[in-house]
Amino acid sequence: MTRLLLRARIALVRAGFWLGSRRRTRAAVVLATSHDDRLHGNLAFIRDAIKSGHPDVRTIGLAHRATAGWRGRIRAIPDAVRAGYHLATARLFVVDDYYLPMYVIRPRPGTMRVQVWHASGAFKKFGYSVLDKTFGASEATIEHVSIHANYDLCLVSSMHVAPAYAEAFRQPIEKFVSYLGVPRTDVLLDDTRARTSAAAVRRRYAIPDGRRVILYAPTFRGDSVVAARHPDALDLERLQTVLGDDHVVLVRLHPFVRNGPRLATRLAGFAIDVSEHPDVNELMLVSDLLVTDYSSAIYEFSLLGRPMVFFAPDLDAYERERGFYFDYRKTVPGPIFETTDEVASYVRKGRFDTERVAAFARASFDVADGRASARFVHEVVLPAFAGRRPASERLRRPRSGPV
After folding, report:
1. Which of 37, 243, 303, 344 could connect to 247 by a Cys-Cys bridge, CB 3.0–4.6 Å?
2. Is 251 exposed, middle or buried (0-12, 13-18, 19+ CB in 10 A)?
3. CA pair distance 242, 245, nearest whole angstrom
């Protein structure tokens, strides 16, 4: 059944691509994701930069979140055809994650495809790096699809992590660039934008003044994004007992988790569910401390120079099931705990090591200046819109600069 459904989806994409190939390519930029029903992160920042600075550039958003069951399969039919059509007609097609339609067509001349990825750094393994893991692509997929194929250009936060992406995508290192920066980090690094966004977050969630704000943002568990679940090992009620009235916890479930637990009413005033907030980086702006496990949010949070705590009671199991591109215990920029009491005690004492955080940020970003979105538009979008390919020598020349 899995192979049959995969073949059907591939056929639909190729049908849409064939229809689009009957037309000339269009001066249009497509921003596409298959993991959400709305654009967010890098795609949203690029879209906003185009609209604010170049409203004449036609921008098309494709956002489709895969769902299980027959309803999800029916809904996927027009999305597959639409994706194929735009892959054939748009001069620039930008994705932020695994995007199957891009891998099952033969690109037309005069079109360009860019992978901006949805996270910074190289933390959890993905792509070809996890074929031997439960989270890896199925045998049916690999048999019929060359995943992560047809990219012309791939963004990374630093050339230091580019080899990990080259392994995950099975793409030559020359296709990766870091000097453009990561668009979604702009909200953290533009002072005016940061103040405005932080104030809006505080109003939206009625965050009390004078409290230390903890952002609890764990990653998901499960063998697939469709079956993602939320870890429940951290005891928020115990945290409340220890930390009292001078702390507040923003609980951010991973976007892949669709049916997460509701916060108990007795946690009111201490824990606030912010899982529906569209941009986790905006939540970082009001947070004094990040508590996480294996989330790539640590990279962007490091740009703020604020402390982090790692709650990883299932580290050994997670490492077997997913794996990391580095030694987790030696590299994460904060202490690792296995119990809620250890986390609560550490936070209560308030003696944090931010030197490790600063060193981690320096190693993780070649460029972080708040202008990545505008740079992407100028260096990639505008040339493609005008029917020109970006100068490969200029784009791929390694650059670095201070964070």
Report:
1. 243
2. buried
3. 9
